[in-house]
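General statements about sequence and structure are easier to judge against a single worked case. Part of our work consisted of pairing the sequence of a single chain with a tokenised description of its backbone. The amino acid sequence and the backbone structure tokens for this protein are reproduced below.

***
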Amino acid sequence: MTGFARVEAAQAWGTLSCEIRSVNHRYLELQLRLPESLRHAEHSARELLREQLGRGKVDCSLRLQSGDRAASTLRIDQNLLAKVLEACSRIESDSAGLARPTALELLAWPGVLAEDAPDADTTAAATLALVDATARELVGMREREGARLAVLLEQRLAGIETLVQTIGQRLPELVAGHRDRLNARVAELLAQPDPERIAQEIALLAARSDVAEELDRLMAHVAETRRSLAAGGACGRRLDFLMQEFNREANTLSSKSVSAETTQSAVDMKVLIEQMREQVQNIE
């Protein structure tokens, strides 16, 4: 299911932000982007997202904006500085005339000067807390979207239910009318009609045109779809299967139609089923 969530958290050592985007996908396809300074938390973040999100193509990005440099504490590595000074002294004694390095040049030496940074456990805990909060917001958004989709699906289900009930109420009349037309047609074609043979042929044709079974199955699919929606959870695959079954019954109903009214109802039903199928693709 599609969704987007963004959460930001300020820390003493910087500001963390997390964005998660998701679109519908058959399985869970997860892409996670972290700055190098937070790479140690990647595995735990992936596991957390897998627990929260069951399906979807998910893109999660984390960014870290360093804190106020003016408020940070600078630390001098005294051991490294002593070694650099000792090396400079040896060079001076071996090579007369070389100038001693200035204080700024010594501070620029890699590793001599560093800013105090939080330990890995602190940054990992903050990262996971932020990912969890963002994932929960995404899930909440997807649940709200799912509730809206459920309303749309219920409207289509009610439409299918109405069509099935209408056809079912008129079914005896349609079958009787079809039998009369067949009887009249056979009587015209046979110079010497055999009443028993005609009755057999009419019964066979009437059985082929009887759609009561298809109507019962359509109503069963309506009930099962409602049950799946009410149960909640990841029901997208089950609903997708039910849409195929809906379509199969509607096609059979259309092929066995013996009246323009039934044919039109079958067409209307297919339109509603297709609308549901499109919406079901967005359900986890």
